[in-house]
Design goal:
heterodimer, A: mainly alpha, two-stranded antiparallel ribbon, 14 helices, about 70% helix, globular, B: Alpha-Beta Plaits, three-stranded antiparallel beta sheet, 8 helices
């Protein structure tokens, strides 16, 4: 039985949302952030980050494919989840998930990736052998037209898709924030800042994630890391992180200064049960440390190798910090009683459907998806792309 | 009108989905019972509650409520005396926070109070059947809904078990049924009240501390009671339109 301190309403003792619901905003955050990074190059013409453009898109897709899994595993009746599409409840923030998800997956991400890779897909469908040839053939969707004009249309449509994609990425993750922020019964969640904080923290985690992946994959491929690219990404990470942190602090200061009826209860929780995950991991280790580290690279001129080390450490800490932030929102919001008179505890199970092992599996799963996607659609310029005759 | 086979292929599934949408949210019916003629609520007379737990037991038996979960429960509040030596400290002190217990939902009554000082009272809780219920607002598929006669119900054949409604209820009145894996809550004994009976908890209350009330019935004594007593709902700041009215509710109750 969960340990209860003080008084909880009797139905509140067990937590409703487990570690899987922590993973869900973490994963969608990575998706949204990765996409925003990709759009930096495409829409805002930040040429320096070009080496990560395709990798960011594939990362977004790999994580987006996994995003609904923790939700499905959490549902009491996963087989009924299609009802969200067929009979959505118009006043429910959650009901829109299906539509936002499908829109983002099909209309934005897959379309953009396809348009961007179309030329290569056509070439690969002509040059590869066996099963892969069939796979690429299917992926051309029957069009092998890679004439100059056709490619320039692709380029323009791709630009528009990215343009639509930016607000869509904001919608995807802002909506996740709204799911929590709109619950007036829960003062830890209820805040109009929640969607905004979620969007900025998503950008932070996505950018840090792609930066780490780029450095790791380039190292694995025994290629040279484009330091100019990583420098630029780190700079964006630094500034967006500062906005994110400011918003979170604004929320915190506002709560402390207003000190409404829930304050004493929440304050106690932050100083006891949430102290480690909130103060130590999220704020000190996962936010202040990476901001200071990244800040140093912005101010002091450091040798390349040191910068790379700093970026790796700061990136890892950032991901830990953002995960802790999701944890503190989802789990923290359920540890106190809505009577403000007591606290419960969360004991994570190990091998159950919503246990630790499943959570670890779901965290690693996107990396396998990414590996498969990278195999299928190599995001870096091929050393010798076959310049086969372009069909018309 | 000519409808081609191809059009029928499109129209039939669309009609099926539309029909499902219409059906979702239709409560079980009872012959001769007109939903439009009722607007159900409950009156809780706190000074009359003796904390016997009869209501909790009756509810569990009537509605097959699983152990450890509660459609209704009773809390005992103990509010200490002001510390007369330094009352100003009390405002910022947990001492002013009431000491609340509800052992097993008050099902088997309460232990004897040891502290003589301060005041004690019992507060029975149940779903407030809010007119603007936050729980029905958030349900992604509309499996939980307010019936036309003002009762918040759950269609358990339709509920996904996402627990969003449990999070949205400010009163802690909902839970996920451990076997059925769907949201469960007080139905105000809908199967009884539509047949002209009162709820199991009201029936079992020995002191009449709980009374089912029909706000649309001009002859219901609730109207006279509301006129002549100081009545409050729980957490009025939540603006949920709660319909469980508490007589003589202490300000410390959460």
């Amino acid at each position: 039985m969960n340990g209860v301190e003080g008084f909880m309403y009797p139905n509140e003792v067990g937590l409703q949302w487990s570690v899987l619901i922590v993973l869900y905003p973490f994963i969608t955050g990575l998706v949204a952030g990765a996409f925003i990074l990709a759009s930096l190059e495409r829409v805002f013409r930040v040429e320096a980050v070009k080496p990560t453009y395709r990798l960011a898109l594939l990362t977004a897709l790999a994580f987006l494919l996994v995003a609904p899994l923790p939700l499905q595993l959490h549902l009491g009746h996963p087989e009924r989840s299609p009802e969200m599409y067929f009979t959505p409840h118009s006043t429910s923030a959650m009901a829109m998930f299906g539509y936002v998800y499908l829109w983002y997956l099909m209309a934005v991400l897959v379309l953009e990736i396809w348009l961007d890779y179309r030329r290569e897909i056509v070439l690969w469908s002509q040059s590869s052998k066996g099963l892969m040839r069939i796979v690429y053939k299917v992926m051309t969707l029957g069009s092998s037209n890679i004439s100059e004009r056709s490619l320039s249309i692709d380029e323009r449509v791709g630009y528009i898709v990215t343009l639509i994609g930016i607000p869509s990425a904001f919608l995807l993750h802002g909506y996740v924030g709204f799911i929590f922020g709109s619950i007036k019964a829960n003062p830890w969640w209820s805040s109009p800042l929640m969607p905004v904080v979620f969007i900025f923290s998503a950008m932070v985690s996505g950018i840090a994630g792609v930066m780490l992946l780029y450095m790791a994959i380039t190292k694995l491929r025994k290629e040279k890391i484009d330091i100019h690219c990583v420098d630029t990404i780190a700079m964006y990470l630094f500034y967006i992180f500062i906005i994110d942190f400011s918003l979170e602090m604004l929320d915190l200061i506002h709560r402390i200064y207003e000190a409404d009826e829930s304050f004493r209860s929440l304050n106690f929780m932050v100083h006891t049960q949430l102290y480690f995950s909130h103060i130590v991991v999220q704020i000190c280790l996962g936010t202040l440390t990476p901001i200071i580290l990244l800040g140093i690279t912005q101010v002091v001129k450091l040798p390349e190798i040191v910068r790379k080390r700093i970026y790796s450490v700061a990136g890892c800490l950032t991901l830990v910090g953002i995960f802790a932030m999701r944890w503190n929102v989802v789990i923290g919001g359920q540890l106190f009683s809505k009577s403000f008179l007591g606290y419960t505890t969360y004991k994570m199970s190990l091998v159950t459907r919503e246990g630790l092992f499943v959570a670890i599996f779901l965290t690693i799963l996107p990396l396998f998806f990414l590996w498969a996607l990278v195999k299928l659609l190599p995001p870096w310029p091929a050393k010798s792309l076959p310049e086969a005759a372009a069909g018309d | 009108m000519n409808i081609s086979r191809r059009q029928i292929m499109v129209l039939l599934p669309a009609a099926a989905i539309a029909w499902k949408y219409v059906l979702a949210g239709t409560p079980e019916e009872s012959p001769n019972y007109k939903m439009s003629e009722h607007w159900w609520s409950m009156l809780i007379d706190i000074p009359k509650c003796i904390g016997c737990g009869n209501c909790v037991r009756a509810c569990q038996t009537e509605n097959d409520v699983p152990d450890g979960y509660f459609r209704t429960w009773v809390e005992r509040y103990h509010v200490s005396d002001w510390k007369m030596t330094n009352p100003e400290v009390v405002m910022n002190n947990p001492m002013i926070a009431p000491e609340v217990i509800s052992p097993d939902g008050g099902k088997e009554g309460f232990p004897v109070a040891t502290d003589e000082s301060g005041k004690y009272f019992f507060v029975p809780k149940l779903c407030n059947h809010c007119a603007d219920s936050p729980c029905t607002q958030v349900c992604p598929v509309g499996a939980t809904f307010i019936s036309p006669d003002g009762v918040v119900l759950v269609d358990q054949k339709y509920c996904l078990g996402c627990a969003y409604c449990v999070q949205a209820c400010p009163y802690g009145c909902r839970y996920i049924h451990p076997e059925k894996k769907v949201a469960d809550k007080c139905t105000l004994c809908y199967h009884r009240i539509t047949k002209g009976l009162t709820t199991a908890c009201c029936e079992a209350c020995p002191t009449g501390a709980r009374q089912l009330a029909d706000l649309k019935d001009p002859k219901d004594p609730i109207h006279e009671f509301l006129k002549t007593h100081s009545v409050q709902v729980l957490k009025p700041q939540m603006a949920t339109g709660a319909k469980v009215y508490y007589n003589d509710l202490d300000g410390s109750v959460r």
